[in-house]
Design goal:
DNA-binding; mainly alpha; homodimer
Chain lengths: 206, 206
DNA sequence: GATGAACTTGGACGCTTGTCCAAGTCAAGG
DNA sequence: CCTTGACTTGGACAAGCGTCCAAGTTCATC
């Protein structure tokens, strides 16, 4: 079917994402992408100058998806106090992760791939920028909603949360022990709550 | 030069390790390995039936190196108390990591690679088994040396340490902010120390 | 010194990869 | 209707890949 080149690009990026999610970056060849999109081989090189350009677009798309998923993680139940709110947030985030192992694996693949290709270093950086910002928002929101305050800088806390979450996720991809992962996250959530001061009844101020 | 087939295998594994460390698994082709070892192409297939067999041997070698590095991390200064001991241990481990970024990256690459190839799943598992055991030894040793006791199961603590360390390392590979990494690890070490009871003067008992 | 097993050599093979292009098809504007 | 620019097609190309093998070399053993 005939398409405008920008629409074609979008379609091919989705196709590349599908292939990469299923079989990894290494298996994401121009031909596989064309086949997935049900398109002639030449079309791909009409829409993208290089394979590198396609891969870069794919990487950017993965970061975008990461941002979407992070944003979705911000919706959690009405929390009574900070510890409970953190627990709920952690559970929500983890549910998303546990439901999408292939996407998580692809994220790590993109990271290592980017580290091997200097021109994609920016991609790896933006992965962390996006995630860091999302966690900061979540921490701030949790504190605000419960009227508590963090006793340490939120960016530092967010970086630690992110590191822990990354490590737990990667290990879970290997051992698939969801219960262990949840327990580790809960433990960390309790630690985190220790870096906050409870509300002092000034909830009605705003 | 003529060699026994097992020596040849060892040599080729080292060559493969060198190539993979420098340019990643994707760039680790049979030809590159042969060239690195300064050996004819056919030699590789005389020593290994498959490329898969070579890669499996490489992966095992990386795990082995991980074990060695972990063991080396157990040697740290005489600690006065547990928090200080943990700080010293963390610093020692981090020094090793920061000195070998390419090796760290390769470790993550091996993990994701193994996750994409079901027959290598065992490799990914043993990466964690080795690291987990090393961290457990380190935690036990630190407590023993300072006469303190952990108030939570060591395996749980070790798993959390490992997750955090993994996450911090991966992020450092991307942003190369060593100061931030150290600060995060210190923060976690303090949290860890909170899961211990100080010595009660029964040091002379043993 | 002859024999046979162990190891090396260099090249060939079929396949997949990214890239490229001439010719064809389509849709819109004059 | 015809022209023009945009998009598609199918195949070709060289390079790199893993694999294989027949012939050559080396070395220990008898």
């Amino acid at each position: 079917m005939r398409m405008a080149v920008e629409d074609r690009r979008a379609q091919l990026i989705e196709a590349a994402l599908a292939v990469a999610t299923q079989d990894g970056i290494a298996a994401t060849t121009v031909r596989r992408v064309a086949e997935q999109a049900d398109v002639a081989l030449g079309v791909v090189h009409y829409a993208f100058a290089d394979k590198d350009e396609l891969v870069a677009a794919l990487a950017a798309r993965v970061v975008e998806e990461l941002a979407d998923a992070s944003a979705a993680g911000l919706a959690f139940d009405p929390p009574p106090d900070l510890p409970a709110a953190l627990g709920a947030a952690v559970a929500a985030v983890w549910d998303t992760i546990e439901a999408t192992p292939a996407e998580q694996l692809l994220t790590y693949e993109i990271t290592t791939f980017a580290l091997r290709h200097p021109d994609l270093r920016g991609v790896a950086r933006s992965q962390y920028e996006v995630s860091q910002a999302a966690v900061e928002r979540l921490l701030t929101l949790a504190a605000d909603a419960t009227g508590a305050r963090w006793t340490r800088p939120v960016p530092e806390l967010a970086a630690e949360v992110l590191a822990f979450l990354d490590g737990v996720t990667l290990r879970w991809l290997v051992d698939r022990d969801g219960a262990a992962a949840r327990s580790r996250l809960d433990s960390f959530a309790r630690y985190l709550a220790a870096s906050s001061r409870a509300a002092r009844r000034r909830k009605a101020r705003a």
